[in-house]
Design brief:
Shape: globular
Radius of gyration: 27 Å
Distance between the termini: 34 Å
Strand content: 15-25%
Mean pLDDT: 86
Largest sheet: 10 strands, mixed
Structural class: alpha/beta
Helix content: 25-40%
Length: 742
């Protein structure tokens, strides 16, 4: 070192401080170059070509940081929707007829096009339009997006197990509420196309440029046939024009606020179209007293600067044990102050602007100040006058558990720090936080870390890590989280289900009998109290209850007259599900950065509205009970007697009170009545129990049960039905364990 100093060489810290950034693959202005190649006047992408209707009003595509106009697109209207739907419908039969292996090859070519020469343009446009820093859109986001596209491509080539005989739905619409990350889009678009459907993407003008480039890439190198992927720009309300087109078999919303959905949806779960979409939210981080605080602070601040790509707009809540809360707060403040905020297309930028259409969280911050909280904000650097979309990095501490900043997710680089006394209190608070998409636990005490992670209700939990996502490890968080198998099934039609007829009315008028049924409210409340205990029991304990009920029914003078008849098939079903519980399940999956422990967990409270003119099929209820759910069943008085006898047999065998409640009632409107009590899942059996989507959209998982799944009396369910029932009454749970090469 002395010799280096004598030679006049600068010290190592100075070398690192003065290093220049290297070139970015694809160049940071590749997006601007693509826009210039189109004269900054884009169109819709329909049927494999550009559609520019004459005489149409133009909509501006704003840049996220400055608001300047990047390009213009024609304002889509109902005539454009008709053209796009016709193009998608015309391509649907040929695309479905290719077969899985050929569709998989097409999707592989699309992934290659995204990863090829246009990679820089894709990343730059996503940064310009959505505000995510370029180092994310060109790096981790794009890599994840490619994996999310290649995984369903491989499934299509190999033939996904358990989906034999499944057919495509037809034309599926993806409706975007604003700029969308590429992984969030491809998490839906990949399985949709792999299952043989064609896609119509409706997006606002602010989100249009990168999606239109994706449409253009789909035609390069014959990646996709014309009409398979169509992109239409227009206001969110344009999705209402889809109502006139019964060819639309499913509608998936991405980035649309939950409170706006009831005004946009139509149809019903039983009559179609299907309705879907992930419900994103914020990340909750639990930091225990044995944690490595430096690594925890680094990961939390990085997540605040650039949230996970699949749920990018919810903020982050940190629950830290009292012994380390003060030290963690100091580290968080120091790291927040070291982040670079600015132009998202600058490769050195770590924090970009708020996404277009997002309101700054100023009201949440000011209310926290009025409540006596401490608010730390990093001053904004000098910015050009027009760059008004930035919000300072903010840390709120010293808040009450009832504060608005905990009740409501706030967009932007906002952290909320709350001290807790114990891991148990942290789990209770994390369970009570609304709209959480994922969780992380930081602790070096591995026993305590695993115990805490196992008790968290979020479907995606990281251990001593954050923002590790992969399709093989489960990566869609929130109330409607799905795994790759469910992602494919969402866009397929099983052999026991018939698609709605084209001329069938899609918006049935459902009468509501009694909006304030006290008996139903009491049953749902009792189920909500009983569900956690029943669901947390080991599978062997629940199996003993099922075996005891089977023995009681076998010894009884008569067997309930259900869908299995009086030949003992109900007892056989009880014993079969008991055996499945005793066998157990779950898997360990190799994922980038470590291992993922995959399992299924019960939904919680499941409402079942029976509307078919036949006795209640008891075998429909057994999987939901066996797998740990609490059920509230509403059935006509004539069909509920056998269920009540089964309930008594289960209770005598040890079933806790409140886990199964059967209420006799009019099936007409029973689905709407159950939906108003916000169960964790809702099964609608038959047209009389059906309800409109506007009533059911607040329920995380809604299923219009196909009549063919239940089977006729004295008839076994079709092959694959039990697996479908298992997936419908459980949700995935993924625990990421770091380790190994990235």
């Amino acid at each position: 070192m002395a010799a280096l100093a004598a030679l006049g060489a600068p010290p190592v810290p100075e070398i690192f401080a003065t290093m220049e950034e290297g070139p970015v693959p694809g160049e940071i202005n590749a997006g601007e170059a693509w826009l210039e190649s189109h004269g900054r006047s884009l169109g819709h992408f329909v049927g494999g070509t550009w559609l520019k209707p004459p005489g149409r009003v133009s909509l501006a595509c704003p840049e996220s940081s400055t608001g300047r106009t990047l390009a213009t697109v024609p304002a889509g209207d109902s005539s454009d929707v008709a053209v796009a739907v016709a193009a998608a419908a015309a391509a649907a039969e040929a695309w479905a007829g290719l077969g899985g292996p050929q569709r998989g090859q097409h999707l592989t070519r699309l992934a290659a096009a995204l990863a090829g020469e246009r990679r820089g343009a894709v990343g730059a446009l996503l940064a310009l339009a959505g505000g995510r820093p370029l180092h994310r859109t060109l790096g981790a986001d794009l890599d994840l997006a490619l994996r999310l596209l290649r995984a369903p491509a491989a499934a299509a080539e190999l033939g996904p197990p358990g989906l034999e005989g499944w057919t495509p739905l037809g034309v599926v619409a993806l409706v975007l509420g604003g700029p969308c990350s590429l992984p969030a889009l491809l998490w839906k678009l990949g399985p949709l196309l792999a299952m043989g459907n064609t896609a119509l993407v409706l997006c606002p003008a602010a989100a249009a440029p990168p999606l239109l480039l994706l449409g253009e890439l789909s035609r390069e190198g014959a990646a996709l046939p014309p009409g398979v992927l169509n992109v239409l720009a227009g206001p969110l309300e344009l999705c209402q024009a889809l109502r006139a087109h019964p060819e639309i078999a499913s509608v998936t919303f991405l980035g649309v606020p939950q409170e706006e959905l009831p005004a946009l949806v139509w149809g019903s779960p039983c009559r179609g179209p299907r309705l879907g979409g992930p419900r994103g939210g914020r990340v909750v981080v639990v930091v225990l007293d044995s944690a490595d605080l430096d690594s925890a602070a680094a990961a939390v601040v990085a997540s605040a600067a650039a949230p996970p790509a699949l749920f990018p707009a919810g903020g982050c809540v940190v629950l830290a044990q009292d012994a380390v809360a003060a030290a963690l707060e100091q580290r968080l403040r120091a790291r927040l102050g070291g982040l670079q905020l600015g132009d998202p297309t600058d490769p050195k930028t770590e924090v970009g602007p708020l996404p277009p259409g997002t309101c700054p969280p100023e009201g949440v911050v000011q209310e926290a100040l009025q409540e006596g909280a401490q608010v730390f904000q990093v001053p904004l650097p000098p910015l050009p006058e027009q760059e008004h979309r930035f919000y300072p990095l903010t840390l709120i501490s010293g808040v009450a558990p009832t504060s608005r900043c905990l009740r409501e997710p706030a967009p932007g680089p906002l952290l909320v720090l709350l001290p807790v006394r114990s891991p148990t209190e942290a789990v209770a608070l994390a369970s009570a936080l609304p709209q959480t998409a994922a969780a992380a636990v930081w602790a070096q005490d591995i026993t305590m870390a695993l115990d805490t992670a196992d008790r968290l209700p979020q479907g995606l939990v990281w251990l001593n890590a954050l923002d590790l996502l992969d399709p093989n490890g489960g990566c869609a968080g929130g109330a409607a989280d799905t795994d790759p198998d469910e992602a494919l099934r969402e866009f397929g039609c099983p052999p026991w289900e018939q698609a709605p007829k084209v001329d069938e009315l899609l918006s049935p008028l459902v009468a509501v009998d009694d909006p304030g049924d006290p008996e139903l409210a009491h049953a749902v409340a009792a189920a909500r109290g009983a569900a956690p205990g029943w669901g947390r029991l080991p599978g062997a304990s629940r199996a003993r209850v099922l075996r005891g009920a089977a023995a009681a029914l076998a010894a009884a003078p008569g067997t309930p007259a259900d869908g299995g008849g009086a030949d003992g098939s109900l007892q056989g079903a009880l014993l079969r599900w008991a055996a499945r519980l005793e066998r157990g399940g779950g898997a360990v999956q190799d994922v980038p950065g470590g291992r993922a422990l995959l399992a299924r967990r019960p939904l919680g409270v499941l409402g079942v509205a029976w509307g078919w003119p036949r006795p209640l099929a008891l075998q429909l209820l057994l999987p939901a009970l066996a797998l740990g759910n609490a059920l509230v069943v509403v059935a006509p008085p004539g069909g509920a007697g056998s269920a009540e006898r089964l309930r008594k047999a289960l209770v005598a065998a040890g079933l806790p009170g409140g886990v199964l409640t059967v209420l006799p009632g009019n099936s007409r409107g029973s689905g709407s009545g159950l939906a108003r009590h916000h169960p964790d899942g809702l099964w609608l059996c038959g047209g009389d129990a059906d309800c409109d989507w506007a009533s059911a959209v607040s329920v995380p998982r809604v299923w219009g049960v196909p009549a063919g799944l239940v089977g006729a009396p004295r008839q076994d369910p079709p092959p694959g039905a039990e697996r479908e029932l298992e997936l419908r009454c459980t949700r995935p749970h993924c625990l990421w364990l770091p380790g190994g090469a990235p």
